[in-house]
Amino acid sequence: xxxxxxxxxxxxxxxxxxxxxxxxxxxxxxxxxxxxxxxxxxxxxxxxxxxxxxxxxxxxxxxxxxxxxxxxxxxxxxxxxxxxxxxxxxxxxxxxxxxxxxxxxxxxxxxxxxxxxxxxxxxxxxxxxxxxxxxxxxxxxxxxxxxxxxxxxxxxxxxxxxxxxxxxxxxxxxxxxxxxxxxxxxxxxxxxxxxxxxxxxxxxxxxxxxxxxxxxxxxxxxxxxxxxxxxxxxxxxxxxxxxxxxxxxxxxxxxxxxxxxxxxxxxxxxxxxxxxxxxxxxxxxxxxxxxxxxxxxxxxxxxxxxxxxxxxxxxxxxxxxxxxxxxxxxxxxxxxxxxxxxxxxxxxxxxxxxxxxxxxxxxxxxxxxxxxxxxxxxxxxxxxxxxxxxxxxxxxxxxxxxxxxxxxxxxxxxxxxxxxxxxxxxxxxxxxxxxxxxxxxxxxxxxxxxxxxxxxxxxxxxxxxxxxxxxxxxxxxxxxxxxxxxxxxxxxxxxxxxxxxxxxxxxxxxxxxxxxxx
Amino acid sequence: xxxxxxxxxxxxxxxxxxxxxxxxxxxxxxxxxxxxxxxxxxxxxxxxxxxxxxxxxxxxxxxxxxxxxxxxxxxxxxxxxxxxxxxxxxxxxxxxxxxxxxxxxxxxxxxxxxxxxxxxxxxxxxxxxxxxxxxxxxxxxxxxxxxxxxxxxxxxxxxxxxxxxxxxxxxxxxxxxxxxxxxxxx
Amino acid sequence: xxxxxxxxxxxxxxxxxxxxxxxxxxxxxxxxxxxxxxxxxxxxxxx
Lengths: 518, 186, 47
What we know:
heterotrimer
């Protein structure tokens, strides 16, 4: 508010001068020669006198550039967007070059703090302008100017120069912070540009491939969680509107690239992702759960007489980069849970368990899904540790008759169909590549099937597995071996169940899946 | 049986709906992920050529920017001195390069038009450019086909290859058409 | 049913859908051979 008199005009003049310099014949792309003269000009205008003036300068410049773009896009004389766009880039790219040079040359060459501070300031200003513009113009909001600024600035700041390499991690962090502020739930009108930014090949490469010790992985994971959380309410609808389909398909492409190039990333963060993906997004969830470390060779799940219990990999636990124990709330419930797991008492814990998971009586939103998922994984990991502490390995015998299995069996029996579906999904979400969790939860699912006291439980276990199998590929290894075991092993008497033969389509489906499995 | 959406009957509903209204169950049955324009069998990483979430194809070589020394960037100095693009001045080799490297672009159509003007014809089934070998007599000719020796442009090995061929006229593309509002200006 | 907040988000997303990013928005300006996408016959090579 209350810009000093004349500042707008000075900013406008400086910007015009800079755009002219940037595009002039003699400066080339580097613009460094003209930059020092321009900085002198900025000093003469008093722009660099105080932090407040610098901040206002950037805000005004951003707004002027954005206004230029809106004017260009509104041109009626030239309706071809492919000719209008370069006109927009003309202004924006020059502005970005100025920002990049100011960041690079801010403070001494070795003083990274000043540079990072300035970058954070500029990103914050552009983000603030975006959000204000987004809220003001509403459906007339244009993504282009902001997307261009963020993209080109990122490319400039990732040039292979020592000064920039020294601050690269901070650049990435600043960008992730800004993108989180601009996540689709906060700026839905920017969502497509946002996904373009997050999945830009240079951004993805820097975040996931070249950042040392995978330091940027948690930041990237948070951005994907932002995306899934935004999509979730729309994906719950049976029929997807075109804008949603577009964003969903784009998300699938990005996940495919991640699955191909960075499967370990999907492995490490699978829990957080599945926690926010709606249960009906089966293929998207399967994509994530199908990831396995690149140095692993998966045994063919269709190998006759595959002895999963003998695989070396099931001795090792996967990395789960989420604090599961912290997600079990409230603290009293966690305390009671730990007490029960330790002492298998009091029995009332089991009868109260459902109540802790239920949050409302409205169908479709009865249960705290995040708590359910955390509970299942926590109990399972505790079970594995408990079995190992006795010098044993998890198998169909050792998993039985324990506090942990009490909880699983109680949930199978006590939950209604909706709760049971969500609970079984939580178990099935651990059926991934060969590891101790996949093995334990595979055994658990099969054990629950065998020991079920009602056919409804067996039916729902089958439903949860089958819907993950009938969807288009990929399918997680653990899902395949569990289902194969269920249909092959006569112990489970799978084919004798009524629900297998309830309709011709279902019968055909089971036969078809069984044929492809066997 | 479980008589709500959470059992096998619930799944059956999806399966039946897929036959009458696939849009209603697109998430339940998923889609063919190999048809999204990504080479999932590639031994190389995909991200360096990932053209974005809405792109149907990876980046073309010319789309990938690379940092070069500023001294190399001379377009500002010479851009007004360059002759404008005129396809009729270029050899067949360059036209084929433009055709094969500008998929889905006006340049592809422009190159196709110029090749057509030089008596190359695009075989719509074999997806290859062919032309008659000068001086070669046809072995057979009817109103619907002809047989003879033709030059094929082998884009894999980047050369013309002479082959005998049975050519059906209806398999050849006519003159490529560029709509007026896509006229390319250099 | 969508909450009111999500309905608003949908409207914003829908209007953005009609102004989708262009591939060139994420690329440096190409002064000589800018992208000019156009529909090409299905029988032309597609990649």
